Amino acid sequence: MLKVVLPDGSEKRFEKRVSPLDVASEIGAGLAKATVAAVMTTPETLDESGQPTRTVISATDLLPESGVVELRLLTKKDEEALDIMRHSCAHIMARAVMRLFPDVQLAFGPTTETGFYYDFWKKEPFTEDDFSKIEAEMTKIIAEDEPFERIEMKRDEAIALLKGAGQTLKVEHLETGLAENETVSFYRQGEFLDLCRGPHIPSAKFVGAFKIMSTSTSHWKGDVNNQALCRVYGTAFFDKKDLSAFLTQLEEAKKRDHRVLGKKHELFMVDPRVGSGLVVWLPKGAIIRKQLENLIYSELIKRDYQPMYSPVICRVELFETSGHYPYYADSQFPPITVDDGDRYLLRPMNCPLHIMVYESRPRSYRELPLRLAEFGNVHRFEQSGELSGLTRVRGFTQDDAHIFCTEEQVEEEFKNCIDMTLSVFRTVGFTDYEVRLSFRDWSSSKYVGDPEVWKKAQSSLERVCREMNLPKLDVVEGEAAFYGPKADFTVRDCLGRKWQLGTIQLDYNLPSPQRFNLKYVGSDGELHQPVMIHRAPLGSFERFTGILIEHFAAAFPLWLAPEQVRVLTISEKYEEYGKQVAARMKEAGLRVGLDLTSEKIGAKIRNGRNDLIPYLCVVGAKEEELGAVGVRGRKQGEMGAIEVGKFIADLQAEVAERRL
RNA sequence: GCUAGCGUAGCUCAAUCGGCAGAGCAGUUGAUUUGUAAUCAACAGGUUAGGAGUUCGAUUCUCCUCGCUAGCUCCA
Known about the structure:
Blueprint: E1 2-5, E2 11-14, H1 20-27, H2 29-34, E3 37-46, E4 52-58, E5 67-74, H3 79-100, E6 105-106, E7 116-121, H4 128-144, E8 149-154, H5 155-164, H6 168-177, E9 183-189, E10 192-195, E11 209-219, E12 228-237, H7 240-255, H8 258-264, E13 268-270, E14 279-281, H9 283-302, E15 306-307, E16 313-315, H10 316-322, E17 336-337, E18 343-346, H11 351-359, E19 370-379, E20 395-405, H12 410-428, E21 434-439, H13 451-467, E22 473-477, E23 486-492, E24 498-507, E25 520-521, E26 527-528, E27 531-536, H14 541-552, E28 565-569, H15 575-587, E29 592-595, H16 601-610, E30 615-619, H17 621-626, E31 628-633, E32 637-643, H18 644-656
Parallel strand pairs: 1-5, 15-19, 21-22, 28-29, 28-30
Antiparallel strand pairs: 1-2, 3-4, 3-5, 6-7, 7-12, 8-9, 9-10, 11-12, 13-14, 16-18, 17-18, 19-20, 20-27, 21-23, 23-24, 24-27, 25-26, 30-31, 31-32
Helix pairs in contact: 3-4, 5-6, 8-14, 12-13
The chain binds one RNA strand of 76 nucleotides through strand 11, strand 12, helix 8 and helix 16.
C-alpha cells in the first residue's frame, strides 16, 4: 500500500500502483486534465546531502508500490512545468525533423533559460526556409496529441535498439557513458522514440505555442574536436499570449543593444582600420567613462587604496615569473623583440606590475593590508568570433587593484571588496545581478596552495557572502582559478547573455616562492608570505559601459549624461541671453549645449528629446525678462520657468548625489 | 579559431530576370525669426568592403581575402 501526502497535508492511500495522474483524478477531473507533471519527494530515502530525495516525474510515471511519498502536482501555473513542456517540445521538434529529414541523427535536446534546442547530425545545415516546414510538421504533431510514453530497458538492450535505428551518436553515448547493467529510459511519442531521462508532459497538446528561433552549429558533447552538429533553437509557452509577449520583449531588448545605441549616440566606435576589438571612445562616451572613473576613484580614496601607474608593455620575463606566459600564449598579442634581443609583452594583466611596487622595498606587517590601485590598460588576443561591441574586446582598462594582506586579514578585505562592488552597483542602479562563488574541485590536482588554507578561505568567503545577504548567490565547485577561490558579479545584456563584471579573486600563487616569493616582516621578526587579492568592481570600463548603455537604454542619469542641459533659443533675438545662460551653467560645472540654429522651437525640442538630453531649457522673451529658463525635463516633462540660479543649484545637487 | 548568415552614401534602407546605383534622415548653403516632438529650398554625398573570375554588360553569378552578426569553443 502506498500513502501519498499532498501539499495541503491531506493523505490518500492506494492499494494498486498509481501515477500522479491517477492521484489527480482522485481529487478532481479538472485537476487531472491540467496536470503537466509532478514533484515526488520520498522522505524515507535521502540523497547525498541528507535531504529527502526529490524528483520531478511525468504525470503518467508510476509511483512506488508502497511506502510514503509526498506529491506535488504541477500545472502550467508552476514554474517547473514550463521547463518540462519545453523539453517535450524539443522532442516534438526532433520528431518533426525526423519526419522531414529521415537520415539525420539525434544528439541531445535540452531546455535553455528561454526555450530549448536540439542538436542533429545532418549533411546539409538547416536553412531558414526549413523553419516553416519544421513548424508546420510540429503543428501537425501537436494536433495529433499523442501521449508521451516512458519505456525502460537495460543498457545493452537499448544499444541494440539504437543500433538498429542507425542512431550511432546515442549508441556512442551509452557505450562510453554508462555501466553495462544500468537501466536507461526512452520516451516514445508515436513513431518517435528517443533516449531520454524525462520527465515529459502527458501529451503533445500541452504545448500551447512555440516557435523555431534560429539555427547554429555545435559540437558533439561540446568538444570542438568532435564532429559538427546542426543545432536548432526554439521556444515554447503554454499560452500564445506569453509567446508573443516574449517575442515583443525580444524586439524591445534589441533596441537597447549598446552597439546600436553606441553608434546612434556617438559613444564609441570599433573600426577595422584600428583593429578588431580595439575600442575608440568618442567624446560623449569618454565623458561617461570619466564619470565612472571619478566614482571609482572616490571609492578608492575612501577605502584607503593607493594609486599607482605602470607601463602597458614590459619584459616577457615578468610574465614568465608570474606563470602567465607561455601558458596563455594563445590569448596574448605576441611579444615584440627589440634589437638587443629583449622581448616585450603588451601586458595581458596588471598584477606583475603591481607586485613590482610591493617588492620595491621590504614590507612590514604594519603596512598591510597594502592596497594598490590602477586603472590598468591590458590587451588580450581574444578569439575573433568572441568579439562583441564593448562587452568582449581585445584592449580594455580594468578598474584594477591588488591587495597584499596577511591571511588573518583576508576575510575583512574580501568583505570590503564586496562592499565596494555593491556600493558601485547601487550607485548606477544595477539590481539585477548574480554573484557566483567559485570554489576548488577537491578531486583535481591543478590547484596551488595549501588545501587547509583553501578550506579556511572558502568557508570565510562563503560566510561573508551569506552575511551580506547577496541576492542570487551561487556556489560552484570546480570553477575556481587554479590559484585561489573567487567571487564574480555577473549581469545579462539585452540579448540575455551573461557577462562577468566585478570580480574578487584570492591568490596564493603569485606571492609563493615558485613565483614572486613575496615576503613581509611579521611582528615576530620573521618573514611571512602575504596573500594577494585581485579585484575589480566594474571589471573593465569597456564592458561595464556597454552594460550601462543597455541598462539605461542610453538615457543616462544627469551625473553620467554626456550633455546634461541644452539651451534652446526661441529665435535669434534671444541668442545673447541664451549664450549668457549657457555660460553661467558651464561656469557652474554643468555640461551644457546650446542650440542656436534657426529651427523652430518644436524642432529643437524634438532633437533634444531624441538626443536624450536630461534637461532642455527654452529661452525667449518671457525667460529673459524673468532671468529664468523654461525647463523641460526628460522624465518630468514641462516644468515651467525656473530662475537660472535656482535651476543650476538644483542640477548641481542632483549631480552631487548621483541621483538616478 | 569553427559553422552559418550578412556587407550599397555618415546613419537606416531601396534597386524586377544580370541592363543608366536611389530615397529618408544627418551634412553644407540660402531663405525664414518662429513658444514646447520635424519651416522651406538648393547643393553635396558612392572604387556597391577589397581582389580575381564568368559575361557584350556584375550591386546582382562564382572564387579568395577582410570585416560584422549569431551560435559553438575559449575566457588569467
